[in-house]
Amino acid sequence: MEQPFYIVYDRLYTTNYITASVEKPERVRQIMSSLGKTYPIVKPDPCTDEDILRCHSEGLLFMEKQDPERYEIAKLSAGGALKAATMSMENKPCFAVIRPPGHHANPDHNWGFCYFNNMGITLKHLIAKGIITRAIVLDIDLHFGDGTDTIFKSNANVPVLNIQASNPVDFINETKSRLESCDHADILGISAGFDQYIKDWGANLSTPDYFTLGEISGSFAKKRCNGHIFAILEGGYYIPDLGKNAIALIEGILKGLYD
Fold first, then answer.
1. Which of 17, 55, 78, 252 is deepest in the core (most CB within 10 A)?
2. Number of domains in the chain
3. Strand blocks (E) in 4-107
4. What are phi and psi of 120, to 5 degrees?
C-alpha cells in the first residue's frame, strides 16, 4: 500500500523578492519539477503577525514590513512550515518546499537570506495552541542555525540539534547519537538544508547520505514522536541536484517511518 506523504508549496515562493542572488526562485522550481506528481501538493496560508511576535521583536517585524513584497512571502514561508507541521500531527508527514529560509532569523535581527524563523514560528504556534508540549529540531544545513538555537535555548522542551560534522561518516553518526540522546517528543522537525552536498558549498554529503539521514529521522519519529515528522527547506544552492537530494530525504523518511 502506498504510504502517505505531502508537499507544501505555493507558486508565490518563486517570487523574485530582494535577497542575495544565490537564494533564487529556481531553487524551489527545480525541487518541484523533480518531484513532479509523485506526492500530493497542499497550499499554505500565511502566518500571522501574532505568530511572528512569539519569536521576533516588534522592531524586527516593523523592519521587514518596509519591504511589503518580501514581508508577504516571508509570512507565507512561515505559514508553509506551519502547515507541514500541523499536517504531520494528523499523521500526514510533509516536506515544505518554501522560501525564504529561516534558521538564521533571530529574535531581534536576521541575516543569511532569512527574515522570519519558519521553524521557530511553527513550533511556538503549536505550543501556544496546546497542540504540542515538546518538539525536537534537527538542523542538517551547512550553517549553524543560530536563530532557531537562540529562540529555543532557554526551553528544555525544544532541543535544537545542529549537526556540523565535516565528513559523511561523522555527520551520520552524530545525527544518530544526538537523536538517540533525546527523550520522546510530540514532533520532529527537520531544518533541511542541502548545502552540505558534495557539489555545494559544504562539499560533504552525497545523495545517498540524504536518504540515510531521512531514514534515521523517520525511524526516530516512529519510535519516539508517534510518527510525527516534517521537514522544511533551508539552504541548498547547487540547483541541478536540489530535487534529487530532496527526493532522497523524503524517500528515506518514508522508509524509516513505514518499514
1. 78
2. 1
3. 6-8, 41-42, 94-96
4. -65, -45
Amino acid at 207: T
Q: Could you read off the pLDDT of 20-66 as tens digits, one per residue? A: 999 999 999 999 999 988 999 999 999 999 999 999 999 999 999 99
1 within a domain of the structure (yes/no): no
CATH number at residue 245: 3.40.800.20
Sign (positive/negative) of CA torsion 200, 105, 156, 49?
negative
The model's pTM: 0.98
- Contact, 30 vs 81, CB < 8 A? no
The residue count for the chain: 259
In a domain, 71, yes or no: yes
Please give the residue range of the domain that contains residue 180. Answer: 6-258
Summarize pLDDT for 134-184 with one digit per residue, the tens.
999 999 999 999 999 999 999 999 999 999 999 999 999 999 999 999 999
